[in-house]
Amino acid sequence: MSNILSKIGLYTVLIIGAFLSVFPFYWMFVMATNHNSVINRVPPAYLPGSELVTNFKNVLSNIDFFGAMWNSLLVSSLTTFGVLFLCSIAGFAFAKFHFKGKNVLFGLLLITMMVPPQLGLIPQYYIITQLGWLNDLKAVIVPGLIDAFGIFWMRQYIASNVPDELMDSAKIDGCSSFRIYWNITVPIILPAFATLAIIKFMYMWNDFLWPLVVLRDESVQTIQIAIRGLMNAYVKDNGMILSGTFWATVPLVLIFLIFNRFFIKSLTQGAVKS
């Protein structure tokens, strides 16, 4: 009886947690389908309306929505692929190779994670202007290709999941270091790739401050900067704003659903011992 009650309590908590997680997306969808007058009334509407198409047409008439979505997709995808490759290579080196100053370098890497990114805004901006990359997507892509957390995450995962004996066997068979990384390490750390991909893609997609500083031309703006253009100082159309926000969130949900299985696997790796 106590076992049944404990299961009921567990599933109740899970259902409540799932509801609280999904409700903001549902509420955003409801707001995106209603007229501004319905949104502002008390009590507000709790069911979807019929203004989804109208609100989205208003979004398209005010900003280059699909162009901004493409810019964000390009920036987020290229940065994510670059981070996965470079951070896994660096993590592999820190985890499996012994060289002078390794612990010092890794310690300095961890220290950079404690520094707020806003402190590097001015020196980064100066470098970008000297390179002539203002109003160019390279100004957002290149600085994001190396991620201290990504290196730390990959180093920890590789150290605990790639056996040294497997690497020693590969060396005896004549494998180079890069071949050991590519043919042996990469297939083992696919769950870690999925987790880091979700984290990095979401971070780059939602990044606002740095793109706002370096991307001033409307033709190269990311979706977060473009949505900011929907806010008028005199008239605030919440339905239009929430419509743009809703459709800008859809790619993030799709990315999470695609990599969800690998994400859970990476978090539970090693939790059960045979």
Architecture (CATH level 2) name of the domain at 63-229: Orthogonal Bundle
Distance between the termini: 30 Å
Structural class: mainly alpha
Radius of gyration: 23 Å
Largest sheet: none
CATH third-level topology of the domain at 63-229? MetI-like fold
Low-confidence runs of at least 5 consecutive residues? 270-274
CATH class of the domain at 63-229: Mainly Alpha
Protein name: Carbohydrate ABC transporter permease
Membrane topology: Multi-pass membrane protein
Transmembrane segments: 9-29, 73-94, 106-128, 140-159, 180-203, 240-259
Subcellular location: Cell membrane
Summed up:
By secondary structure, the chain is mainly α. The protein has helices at 2-32, 36-40, 52-62, 65-96, 102-112, 121-131, 138-141, 148-161, 164-172, 177-188, 190-206, 209-214, 223-228, 238-268.
